[in-house]
Design goal:
Elements: E1 12-18, E2 21-26, H1 33-39, E3 45-51, E4 57-59
Antiparallel strand pairs: 1-2, 1-3, 3-4
């Protein structure tokens, strides 16, 4: 039987990459995404989410 999840526990987390290098991960990308874009104006910034099972799905 699965354990009940805590309210703040999530099944996934977001990851933000700059030029394919991981620069941030967590649950609230809206707090840092715009700052990362502004700090890296000529670089490729992408965001992905990673389920706890370890599968990475990227939207580039």
């Amino acid at each position: 039987m699965k354990q009940a999840k805590k309210k703040d526990e999530s099944d996934y987390e977001y990851e933000i990459y700059v030029d394919e290098k991981l620069v941030w991960h967590g649950l609230n990308p809206e707090k840092v995404y715009q700052k990362i874009i502004n700090d890296n104006p000529k670089k490729k910034v992408s965001i992905a989410w990673k389920p706890k099972e370890g599968i990475l799905i990227a939207f580039i």
